User: What shape does this take?
Amino acid sequence: MTAIPKRPRPKDPEHLAFIASLVCAVCGAPNPVPHHLLRGVVRGMGMRAGDQWVVPLCPEHHRELHAGGNETEFFIRYGIDPQALAYALYDCTGDADAGLTMIQMYRRRA
Assistant: This one.
């Protein structure tokens, strides 16, 4: 039986830098960290989602999400559709004004 080689996950340093230049999707705090989505995106078993599937979270909300252990409940609690937000942010990479608008639009949409 031949092993199937792993495909590398898509990496996009420019997009990660863009996400880090925005504000937290939950509270609007500056200097967020990119959170790679765990649910609802295509990824290999045991692999992190590609860099296109990230949302900006401040360090406090990023810790809260991981400490709580349930990404779906976290985003429902804060009224955010993370997949739609990640998709919209990837579409406007490099345009800070559009990115901030997307965060405001998706913050209370879920």
Strands lie at 33-36, 54-57. The chain has a mean pLDDT of 86.
